[in-house]
Write a structure and sequence with these properties.
The protein has 443 residues and is α/β, with parallel strands linked by helices. The protein has two domains: 305 residues, Rossmann fold; 109 residues, 2-Layer Sandwich (Dihydrodipicolinate Reductase, domain 2). The protein contains 16 helices and eleven strands. Helix 11 runs parallel beside helix 13. The structure holds nicotinamide-adenine-dinucleotide. The site of nicotinamide-adenine-dinucleotide has 36 residues, from helix 1, strand 2, helix 12 and helix 15.
């Protein structure tokens, strides 16, 4: 980290920023693209985006200094974003957005020509990793290394024709089948040997990530697949001085879990059980109907409560709670997910109480602003010379990637404080500790 840049040394956000998306035709990607264009044209507000709507408090409370975050840090502006990507369906982003049934015609029609002009490149795909999908728009058979080269060629062509100064890649592709970290992921040399040998535990998302990082492009993983959350990719990112972030966007039920969980713990209320079920009818729901893809998602969703509640520190309160997560594919709901939570808690002298949460949410509406923020922040990290894992962006993820000797931080409020303090640090402002005694006493 010694070479990390601060304030005046951070490279300026000049020129176009290419946003490269494996899974370009998906619900999240098309909602993100349509939304950015609608905001650029002044047709809608970027609700849910911290970079666009948030502020950051600086100094003491009596100073009343709370600039908008996007004016405080040198982020790329929305007008500079240029989009490209891959999908196994050849539809342009307008056709794909119509099919995703997330946005209403009154939002899609005004940005139709913009969306129609964004068409995916053929995907690097392996049905072994996503059993419930079959698409015609894929690159031909090839070795792992040939496929990496094909992805890099797409990126180079995009950079050349669109004249982008910088790029960020963000995986919005389907959730891949569960992979246990294996020997081939344990070091860069093992991984590169695995690439040469077409190792079956190297998934398509890893090929995209390898192509991005070795092209000097920051990589974000929006899904729960391992992808860059393996020692080999961390080594690669550090070697190429490129930031990486993941994994699995924190939307819907897990977002609420990381809001409610810290609240229960703050009041030292006990937990006997937390049963979560989801009804989801989009393509993501269909993919997750496959046991192997769901296993990847389940791992990501289950770890959250354990780390927030710290049963090892509070065995009487959290030593024995039952946590169950289920996702049911139910086509009539489309992208409008329903997340039910039955939470069994106990209070003073062990008296039981119940909380029921029924979150009628919209998956991609919650996810799109996170993709935007992550793209802008990873580009900032690159310009600030902050390579490797970006733990300060845990705020956005269900399974935040962190150093091997740490446990991840899941509490949304600690995550937000970490994020804003990182920005204060980069911009040479004092950290805010919330001590506040100095308002009342001479310290
Ligand atoms: N929407 C949310 O709230 C949310 C939250 C967390 C994570 N995610 C994850 O984000 C991802 C996208 O979600 P979605 O709802 O847009 O799903 P989706 O099924 O609508 O879109 C995924 C797209 O990826 C494409 N794809 C699959 N494999 C590919 C490959 N190898 N290369 C290129 N394209 C590929 C598919 O054809 C599809 O168009 C999923 O993995 C999902 O689990 C979504």
């Amino acid at each position: 980290m010694s070479a990390m840049k601060r304030k005046d040394e951070i490279q300026k956000a000049e020129g176009g920023l290419g946003v490269l998306i494996p899974g370009l035709g998906g619900a999240v990607s098309t909602t993100f693209l349509a939304g950015v264009e609608a905001v650029r044209r002044g047709l809608a507000l970027p609700v849910g985006s911290l970079t666009q709507m948030g502020t950051v408090r600086l100094g003491k409370r009596y100073e009343y200094r709370t600039p908008p975050l996007r004016e405080f840090v040198p982020l790329a502006c929305l007008d500079d974003l240029v989009f490209g990507g891959w999908d196994l369906f050849p539809d342009n982003c307008y056709q794909a957005a119509v099919q995703a049934r997330v946005l209403e015609p009154h939002h899609l029609e005004p940005v139709k020509s913009f969306l129609e002009a964004v068409t995916p490149w053929p995907a690097v795909f392996d049905k072994g990793f996503v059993k419930n999908l079959e698409g015609p728009h894929v690159k031909g058979e090839g070795s792992h290394l040939e496929l990496v080269e094909a992805i890099k060629a797409d990126v180079e062509e995009f950079r050349r024709t669109r004249g982008t100064a910088r790029c960020v890649m963000v995986w919005c592709g389907s959730t891949e089948a569960y992979l246990k970290p294996a020997e081939v992921h344990a070091s860069l040399s093992a991984f590169e040997a695995g690439l040469r040998a077409n190792h079956p535990a190297i998934s398509p998302s890893m090929l995209y990530a390898y192509a991005a990082v070795t092209s000097g492009i920051p990589f974000i993983n929006g899904a729960p697949n391992l992808t860059v959350d393996i020692p080999a990719m961390v080594e690669l990112a550090n070697e190429h001085r490129v930031p990486i972030a993941g994994k699995d966007l924190k939307t819907g039920q897990t977002l609420l879990k990381t809001i409610l969980g810290p609240g229960l713990k703050a009041r030292m209320l006990g937990l006997t059980g937390w049963y979560s079920t989801n009804i989801l009818g989009n393509r993501d729901g269909m993919v997750l109907d496959d046991r192997d893809s769901f296993k990847t998602k389940e791992e990501s969703k289950l770890s959250v409560l354990e780390t927030i509640l710290q049963p090892q520190l509070y065995p009487e309160l959290y030593g024995n709670f039952y946590h169950k997560v289920v996702i049911n594919y139910y086509p009539p709901r489309g992208d409008n997910k329903e997340g039910w939570d039955c939470i069994d808690i106990f209070g003073w002298l062990g008296y039981p109480m119940q909380i029921k949460v029924d979150f009628l949410c919209r998956d991609s509406i919650l996810a799109a602003p996170l993709v935007l923020d992550l793209v802008l922040f990873l580009d900032l990290a690159q310009r600030a010379a902050m390579p490797g894992i970006q733990e300060w962006l845990s705020f956005y993820f269900k399974s935040p990637q962190c150093a091997v000797n740490l446990y991840p931080e899941h509490d949304l409020f600690i995550q937000l404080m970490k994020l804003k303090n990182t920005l204060r640090y980069l911009m040479g402002e004092e950290q805010i500790t919330h001590l506040g005694l100095d308002y009342y006493y001479d310290l």
